[in-house]
């Protein structure tokens, strides 16, 4: 049975899933019945940052246009442009054993593509979540459902994997922003 996290809570993956090497990080959402005149396209992105809180090169920004990190530890499995269907809308595979030693945090964010132009925000999105599963057994380890009302935000940091005392941990962040992907690129570059 997976651990359900609330905003701000953390787990130690070494304790909750001993021996975990390959993880799936699934991100999902549903859209409310709204008519903004255009379809929604939500995008998951990953920033692999060092101790200074920055990525060491653009290659450590993994998204639909750069699907693999240079250390072969993170792979974005594709852009779901409609969010239709059940289950994960976008999936990232992480091989924890291959993460470059300089990477201290792996941050997962979701942004709405062209949100301003399309007049869209996370107030029109529901059932958003991030989950981690063992990709070898497909067993879900943890899930964080973002139950907060993000009425005007156009980007959300869902959560992050981070190193502490030689083990990988996860924090449910759930922080919304009135910004696009550029905000995160500027923050972490």
UniProtKB/TrEMBL annotation:
Q: What is this protein called?
A: TerD family protein
Q: Which residues form the TerD domain?
A: 1-188
Q: Which Pfam families match?
A: TerD (PF02342)
As for family, the record states: Belongs to the CAPAB/TerDEXZ family.
InterPro entries in UniProt = Stress/Tellurium_Resist, TerD
The organism's lineage is: Bacteria, Bacillati, Cyanobacteriota, Cyanophyceae, Spirulinales
Looking up CDD domains in the UniProt record yields: TerD_like (cd06974)
| PANTHER family linked | CAMP-BINDING PROTEIN 1-RELATED, GENERAL STRESS PROTEIN 16U
Q: Which organism is this entry from? A: Lusitaniella coriacea LEGE 07157
